[in-house]
Amino acid sequence: QVQLVESGGGLVQPGGSLRLSCAASGTIFSGLSMGWYRQTPGKQREFVATVTNGGNTYYADSVKGRFTISRDNAEKTVYLQMNSLKPEDTAVYYCSARIVITNVLFWGQGTQVTVSS
Q1: 37 neighbors 93 (Cβ within 8 angstroms)
Q2: Can you tell me the mean pLDDT for 46-62?
Q3: Quick one: which of 79, 83, 85, 72 has its CA closest to 36?
Q4: Angle at the Cα of 87 from the Cα atoms of 84 and 89, rounded to 5 degrees
Q5: pLDDT at residue 26, rounded to an integer
Q6: What pLDDT does 42 receive?
Q7: How many Å is the Cα radius of gyration of the chain?
Q8: Amino acid 30: pLDDT
Q9: Phi first, then psi: what are they for 107, rounded to 5°?
Q10: What is the dihedral of CA 61, 63, 67, 72, to 10 degrees?
Q11: Among candidate residues 40, 37, 36, 65, the one with its CA nearest the CA of residue 51
Q12: How many angstroms separate the CA atoms of 95 and 4, rounded?
């Protein structure tokens, strides 16, 4: 089992920044591919960004150039730095962890991000 605890959500004005954190426990962090997804009411959960266990990063087109995903293997934490936030970035953001060798996926509890003036 992998436990994920997110933090860092909140209310921010358009154009502002937030940094989300997700701390993992329960397994070897270096064997995890980590990601962030988001969901708004009535819509499917959508991919935001991922960082593989090898350090490769991938982003949704909607956040490319504004968001940066990173991982600290020593701290067993993944981060999502969000800059130039827009109202359409408002969502519940979920951290994900995929065990690479088994492809089993785990989710965090979610953290609310609201972009509004």
Answers
A1: yes
A2: 97
A3: 79
A4: 70
A5: 86
A6: 94
A7: 13
A8: 86
A9: -125, 150
A10: -50
A11: 36
A12: 7
